[in-house]
Amino acid sequence: MSNRIPLMAGNWKMNLNHLEAIAHVQKLAFALADKDYEAVEVAVLPPFTDLRSVQTLVDGDKLKIKYGSQDISAQDSGAYTGEISGLMLSKLKCTFAVVGHSERRQYHTENDELCNAKVKAAFKHGLTPILCVGEGLDIRKAGQQVQFTLNQLEGGLKDVPAEQAETIVIAYEPVWAIGTGEVATPEDAQEVCGAIRQRLADLYSQDVADKIRIQYGGSVKSGNVAAIMAQPDVDGALVGGASLDADEFVKIVRFRD
Ligand code: PEP
Question: In order of start, what are the domains of the chain with their CATH numbers?
Fold first, then answer.
């Protein structure tokens, strides 16, 4: 048994305006308040425009729910129209910043070099990066999923020192399973998450690797989460579509019930 606290994070993608965000987080907080859920860390990852509202609610009501951004600029400030910096996100008391989600890699051509700069920007401003890695369908069909994912991992972590790396969250998200309803089998998830932990041990040390939380993401739902979470190297879930339904997300958070 590891001491890693599972992290269940809801990636809302480009959904829920700031008013809907408040109602949604209130619903989550209410549903999770009747039981001690300290054994599971719960986070929401709303669009940038919701973060201030979520912060006000979490601060005001002293909620245990954490929150973070879906992206972060590699820059601190300046002439970067449309970008949001780690400085701004830490001012909003974000805990997490997602880096390298496959939708950003696909639609915004983010590569490992940029992801690496974003990981460093997050650490610089006291945020915990959730670094997303994972293969597309062609790579999976060619049986190259482990090598491909480990290359992304190494690219994202280049020159990141052990004392920072041990706090990062890695999200293994096979692209073919994201938003498709096609979830990886628990064995598929374990194969790659186990290889990620082994590579982290090689890059840093076993001690560091044992501290790092590795999430699985890709069509996680209340009906499949328990089997995935039972895998020894899966320490949480990054949940997209199912996190938009508060009742369903609560069931995912309560995967042990
Ligand atoms: C995601 O957006 O990170 C994700 C895993 O989406 P979904 O759960 O909808 O597949």
Answer: 7-234 (3.20.20.70)
